[in-house]
Queue: 2 jobs
Job 1
Amino acid sequence: AFGRKTSYIGLAESLSPEGPWTQAGCVVKTDETTAMNAIDPSIVVGTDGKWWMHYGSYFGGLYCVELNPSTGLPATEGDKGHLIARRANYRKDNLEAPEIIYHPDLKKYFLFVSYDPLMTTYNVRVGRSDKPEGPFIDYFGKELKDTTNNFPILTAPYRFRNHQGWAGTAHCGMLTSEEGKFFMVHQGRLSPQNLMMDLHVRQVFFTEEGWPVVSPQRYTGSKSRKFSDIDLLGEWEVLRVREPLYERRLEAGQILWGESELKNEEWNLSHTFFFRKGNKIADGKGHWRFAEEKQSLSLTLDGEELKGLIVFAGHDWENETETILFTGLDSRGRSVWGKRIK
């Protein structure tokens, strides 16, 4: 039931992904007497073989419950799990859509969550843990369940030049290719009305500090290649992904009808910079440095140093051409995106 905790996560099973499916039982059932809300399940198998399901929403936060691998049902009958993530005011500060993955090289579990209302300022945050059941820690060493706003922030409403922009860029799923590449899928709502949802697919990279970051552009399978300093010369659009500042009126964790369009100050907009020879950025705005071996870019813009930005080939959707992209995090856990446009 929308706007209530009357929810149910059931289990169906089949010998084939095509079915037929047989209902096997109830995993978690919630109502107005429970703290949690039984929606949005995400399951991970730990390195020790134990199964864990993460689920929940703005009602009470996100929870984790151990499952029985032989049945898919809770390891302890009736168990609804323990709290793993929550915001301070769950009626106003929306939190939902947990998605958990394991990174075998980093030996970390990553919990992706979605903040704020899905039609407008929806954005993705992430925490990590050594254990699938948590605790999950953010960029600044804070637990995701300590009711503070957590970082990094990976996606948020954005607008590059030559496009009206995308809102609602969250509620993500994570995929891993056979080659070991990571991808994020999430909704994107075409602005300005934000009523039509498209599926966005973005490649995910991991910084030297072991945090996930996503491509500023949707994935098209662009052929990977190595770049040198000379490839980076030219005009760039740089976009800083920051958290929403405007406080909206919410109903059941979602935006009220009539407030579906973004305010001007809610957009993450791109700004133009010119990378010149001598590692200078035109008009005295800073300088840049490229580490060819690591394919890593460092920028100094207006006195702020941005380190370890990951450089790769990709598609420029707004200008319909192949280009060079970068992604990374600033010192405050906010994503930094860039694309060369000339």
Job 2
Amino acid sequence: MAHNLDKYFETVLKITKEAGKIIRQRIWDVKTVQTKSSAIDFVTEVDQQVEKFIIDDITSHFPDHKFIGEESSAEGHKITLTDDPTWIIDPIDGTMNFVHGYPNICISIGLLVNKVTEIGIIYNPVLEQLFTARKGQGAFYNDKPIHVSGKKVISEALLAMEFGSSRDPEKMRVVQENVKILYPLAHGMRSVGSAALNMANVALGGIDGYFEMGIHAWDMAAGDIIVREAGGVVIDPTGSPFDLMSGKVLCAASLELAQQLSATVKQYTPSRDN
């Protein structure tokens, strides 16, 4: 079956921007907050509203397409990745930030066809930051081409990592150990509170390396192709090939930096998405 990827991209980019208006209108409002896997793993009514808006609108254009969404998955919908065109959606990556009105948030949408990522869109509607990539066509920030920094060693790198919403003692121990290990070695460390934005910033060249263990496919699907199309490297933190369903990622501005980070960080193995 032939797929009109140009049409898919143009249509869903418009839908993403429309969905962004909902977030922009609500960022500083009082939210209705519920918890999911832990006391600080939040979902708001806006997360659910935005995901429904995106899925319903895409379905109206492409009724045979499939979806993997953060909020529908949280409600118990089984995660199954087939060869069908599948949109992997995080309606608000950085929900904790959104709850507090901290504007580092984004919509993250990736399209996989035959289990290969073809399209990535990361959009921060509050700060008007738009990152996009198409397979084989490069990566863009607000329609301008972007490229990773090319840094090759930790000692010259600005690194990003997240603390996450899990309160699993082993996960917290590994996160704390990695801060202790990397903080003295790197130029600096950052935590913006959004996996997708961390990956986008690696693509932009503003961050040189980022890793996280304990996230999900919807956090990484768009960022994966955006980093790779910007000339970066995306692998498993162990050094193995990247697996979208593994719950972990390491991306960097060069293979040398990715391998050095992989050999340096302490590992944690989260549960898989499938």
